[in-house]
Design brief:
Distance between the termini: 89 Å
Largest sheet: 6 strands, mixed
Structural class: alpha+beta
CATH topology of the domain at 735-957: Heat Shock Protein 90
CATH architecture of the domain at 735-957: 2-Layer Sandwich
Strand content: 35-45%
Number of helices: 8
Helix content: 10-25%
Radius of gyration: 57 Å
Length: 960
């Protein structure tokens, strides 16, 4: 459960056709991809949380067998029960089904483990039940011998014949409704375990001897009979599996798990209450347990030797060294051992200080060991006692100072060591006693002997120490200011340098050749250790092993290929090659892999898949591997991989249609936002540090344009915009023309209005009035009249210069005109000008020459014909902000009588009023107000009803 299982009670482990691992437990079922669990329980649709078995049919449905007798199946990421699959109600029983068999017609046969009833489900989900007799006499000459018909397994041959594997024996029948025909009663079948490629095993009791045996069948034919090589009850065998390498695995309930080869037990695992065993597609062995969860066993377990850290007092191996007499020296935190001939011999010394992590064996039978950058021990007179498996020594000494590194020169029988800045040389027979030293006064990084057996010192500058003299190494000047972390002599002319764990260089003839750059795929982590066994180079990182076959090919301009070993280790401390085997020291213990097995290890590739696809934070179907969207969207891809070997998975993806290169990293999520309309394909691949890239999987995305994203939309919008602009220009032009026409009409009408006011008849009458005053010696009146007449002429001429005039000026002009007419008519009428309080007289502007024709008409046609005193009233009021209502009212003869008079008089007044009406209409259009002229009787029913003219006139304010 600490690793993610829903329960430690695991009934079965199973791998489906999509390579997911499933665990059935008493707390639901879990799906696993190697790093991530998905859980399904009652709340997700299961009929029970206690799932005891799982099996897949040819349709890809995963059938879940519940302890309470119900069935569910999982298909297309959905749990089906009796609600969304009602036919499951007919498959509900008092006891849970044991398993099912599916024939070539896609019919599924469900049966019990302890009853003889069979339920057949066809491809249309129709169910037929077959009632098998509960007892069967397998001997026709029966002597009252009766066996229970307990079905252990059911098969159907190509010819259509059914075979029932029962506790009573094997029986055949042509139809499940027919009678049984006896096949064999040699064995009493207790359980059947189907395997791959029509191979299955059965536990049975041999009736003749009551011997418990294991039977192997191939295509239904018995091929082998084995006696279990252990004392156990046959009914306690829970599972049997033959793996791809031919090893036989047996799971028992009480005695653990057994691995057999040639009928001999080679491994026994103390797994409590073991259940099912499977081998996944990466060849890992999985075992479920009733109490301990589930176990996974590496498929290479039987291809190499491994000595667990429990042998070494729960301590990992920290260093290795070859023993000239055969065997491998191993250092742990506190002890030293010699591994030789499958036996460990232990040094009789227990280190109470820091851990041993350096070890060397000298030809003079001296063992040198210690901790890097600490004190070292020299054990002299090493002796191995085979009977006690111990190692004794004559004496030991301790180094006077901490040592960083020890380098042995067998040719000169000397040991060189380095401290922080000092190089110290010891004769091998006088270790830590007589010495010579030199202080370099700078930090020493690494010490090694080159191909010419000359001591090299790596600092910021590379030196040679020869004949007790320190010289600058000009040949390695190219490595100055680089830290050398490891070095190998390949042959007499070629050396290999490890620079800071990141780069490997071959050095020959004074030139460096970059080996790392020539690898077909990169090594993800720092290279810690190197060993060479012609022609192979073995490399290790902190967790993995790599093999480069013949790295010298790069000197001929060829590629060097590197093969990762698909094994994971916890913290590799050292590697060593000896007698065709690679030894690996790690926190797991000591591992020995034959070189031939190493080359046969093929890395398993992770299988990438899309875990979830969210569109605008809503999950969408990912089974079809394609989707079509419109407009702007936020697409979130979460991906994972099916990988049941250890080690992190690296992903690389590319969106064709947008990305030009693969994007690589350890993340498992990518978001694309507001993709442009078009077709895209997301490619995803994965690999481990120990494998090449997997085959890419794809997901197709089609982004369709919305109506406003389609290019035609922009074309139409452009056309519409141009049309609107053109329409606006044309309309504005027409408005300008219309305005010009209105202005022209107004100018014309204003000129005609002036002409009507300046008509010859009016001028003649005015001059006649002046002459009359003069002839009657009324020079004063003549002068006043002439002055007012001149002023009126000036006002009329001034009015034509502007279409608008202030209300005050217009009233003044009307008063001047009316005063002239009163003088001329001997003051026979009076007039008044009344203005509403709401009218701002000083600020308001109104059209000029609008009122005079109607005032003149009131004088000439209304007042002049009466024999009583006349009255003309002019009333001005504000109708709205932009409109004045002006009423001209007289007490004259009225409309009907004035019409008779006017027929005999000049018609210029009628023309003036007509032009005024037209001007008001045009001014209304210009100022966008409604104008009008309304003429009626002022006093209807009176003998002299008078006339009332009401004008609605547009106005403006200030200089507008």
């Amino acid at each position: 459960m600490a690793d993610g299982l829903p329960s430690n009670t695991v009934y079965q482990v199973f791998q489906d056709s999509k390579d997911f691992i499933w665990f059935t437990t008493n707390d639901g079922v879990a799906r696993y991809d190697g790093s991530h669990f998905d859980y399904y329980r009652k709340k997700d649709g299961l009929s029970s949380n206690e799932i005891v078995k799982i099996q897949e049919d040819s349709f890809g449905r995963l059938w879940l067998f519940n302890l309470n007798g119900t069935l569910n199946f999982f298909w297309n990421n959905t749990i089906y029960n009796s609600v969304n699959a009602p036919f499951l109600d007919s498959l509900t029983t008092k006891e849970f089904f044991h398993k099912f068999f599916q024939d070539t017609d896609k019919r599924i046969y469900f049966y019990y483990n302890h009853r003889g009833d069979i339920f057949a489900l066809d491809s249309q989900n129709n169910i037929q039940k077959y009632l098998i007799p509960s007892t069967l006499r397998y001997d026709p000459d029966a002597k009252d011998s009766v066996d229970w018909m307990i079905i252990r397994y059911l098969t159907k041959e190509e010819g259509g014949t059914y075979t029932l594997w029962t506790q009573a024996g094997l029986f055949k029948m042509d139809n499940l409704s027919d009678k049984f025909s006896f096949s064999s009663d040699e064995f009493q079948i207790t359980e059947v375990f189907p395997g791959k490629e029509q191979i299955f095993f059965s536990t049975a009791v041999e009736k003749s001897s009551s011997r418990k045996v294991i039977l192997k069948f191939v295509h239904g034919i018995l091929t082998d009979i084995m006696v279990p090589p252990l004392k156990m009850k046959s009914q306690l065998i829970r599972s049997i599996l033959e793996d791809d390498n031919g090893f036989l695995w047996i799971s028992t309930f009480e005695e653990g798990i057994f691995c057999l080869w040639n009928d001999k037990v080679i491994h026994h695992f103390d797994i409590n209450e073991g259940q099912a065993i499977i081998q996944d597609k990466e060849k890992n062995i999985w075992i479920s347990s009733m109490n301990d969860g589930a176990y996974k066993i590496n498929p290479l377990l039987n291809l190499h030797q491994h000595y667990d850290k429990a042998i070494f007092g729960q301590s990992g191996i920290t260093a290795l060294a070859s023993n000239p007499g055969g065997g491998i020296w191993c250092a742990t935190e506190k002890r030293i051992s010699l591994f030789r001939g499958d036996t460990f011999y232990w040094l009789e010394f227990l280190n109470e200080g820091g851990p041993f992590n350096q070890i060397q064996y000298l030809p003079n039978n001296t063992l040198l060991t210690g901790q890097k950058s600490s004190l070292f021990y020299a054990f002299r007179g090493i002796r191995v006692n085979a009977s006690t498996r111990t190692i004794s020594y004559h004496s030991w000494t301790l180094s006077p100072d901490p040592l960083k590194q020890i380098v042995l020169n067998p040719a000169k029988n000397e040991v060189n060591t380095i401290g922080f800045m000092r190089l110290v040389n010891y004769p091998s027979d006088q270790l830590f006693q007589l010495s010579s030293s030199i202080n370099l006064k700078e930090r020493i990084y690494y010490l090694f002997y080159n191909a010419e057996n000359v001591l090299n010192i790596n600092t910021k500058t590379n030196y040679i120490y020869r004949d007790n003299k320190l010289e600058i190494n000009n040949e390695l000047a190219c490595l100055n200011h680089h830290t050398i972390t490891d070095h190998l002599v390949i042959n007499d002319t070629i050396e290999l340098f490890n620079i800071e764990g990141d780069s490997l260089f071959l050095f020959t003839s004074g030139r460096l050749h970059n080996l790392t750059a020539s690898f077909d795929h990169p090594i993800e982590f720092q290279i810690k250790h190197m060993v060479y066994n012609d022609p192979k180079l073995y490399l290790s990182t902190v967790n993995h092993i790599y093999i480069c076959d013949n790295p010298l090919l790069i000197l001929k301009g060829k590629k060097a290929f590197i093969q990762p070993v698909d094994l994971d280790f916890r913290n590799i401390h050292d590697i060593l090659i000896q007698k065709g085997a690679l030894y690996i020291a790690s926190d797991d213990g000591l591992t020995m892999i034959p070189d031939t097995s190493l080359m046969d290890i093929q890395p398993s590739l992770p299988i990438p898949y899309f875990q979830a696809i969210l569109v605008n934070d809503q999950e969408t179907d990912r089974e079809g591997n394609r989707m079509t969207l419109r407009g702007n969207n936020r697409i979130n891809f979460s991906f994972s991989s099916k990988n049941y070997s250890s080690g992190p998975v690296i992903y690389s993806y590319m969106l064709e249609g947008m990305d030009k290169d693969w994007i690589t990293g350890g993340g498992n999520n990518v978001i694309y936002q507001n993709l442009s309309p078009g077709k895209y394909m997301l490619k995803l691949k994965a690999r481990k540090a120990t494998s090449p890239w997997s085959k890419p999987i794809t997901f197709r995305i089609t982004i369709r344009s919305t109506i406003w994203q389609h290019p035609l939309f922009y074309i139409l919008m452009g056309i519409l915009f141009v049309a609107l602009v053109a329409l606006f220009i044309i309309r504005r032009k027409n408005q300008q023309l219309k305005q010009q026409e209105i202005d022209h009409q107004l100018v014309t009408l204003e000129q005609k209005a002036l002409q009507s006011m300046m008509n010859p008849h009016f001028i003649f009458n005015a001059l006649g009035s002046i002459q009359s005053f003069l002839l009657r010696n009324k020079s004063g009146e003549a002068g006043l009249y002439l002055s007012q007449f001149a002023r009126l002429i000036r006002q009329n001429l001034s009015a034509i210069n502007s279409p608008m005039i202030s209300l005050e000026e217009e009233i003044d002009r009307l008063k001047n005109y009316l005063d002239l007419e009163r003088l001329r008519m001997s003051e026979r009428f009076d007039y008044t000008v009344e203005m509403d309080d709401t009218v701002p007289e000083d600020d308001i502007q109104m059209p000029s020459m609008i009122l005079q024709p109607y005032v003149e008409n009131a004088v000439l046609h209304g007042i002049s014909a009466i024999d009583y005193r006349g009255l003309i009233r002019i009333l001005i009021s504000k109708q709205s902000e932009d409109v004045l209502t002006i009423t001209i009212e007289d007490n004259g003869i009225g409309l009907q009588r004035s019409a008779v008079v006017s027929q005999r008089s000049e018609k210029h007044l009628h023309l003036g009023m007509g032009m005024t009406r037209k001007r008001l209409e045009i001014l209304g259009k210009k100022f966008r107000v409604k104008t009008s002229v309304d003429i009626s009787e002022a006093f209807p029913g009176s003998p002299n009803p008078g006339t009332r003219v009401t004008l609605v006139v547009p106005v403006s304010y200030g200089g507008e």
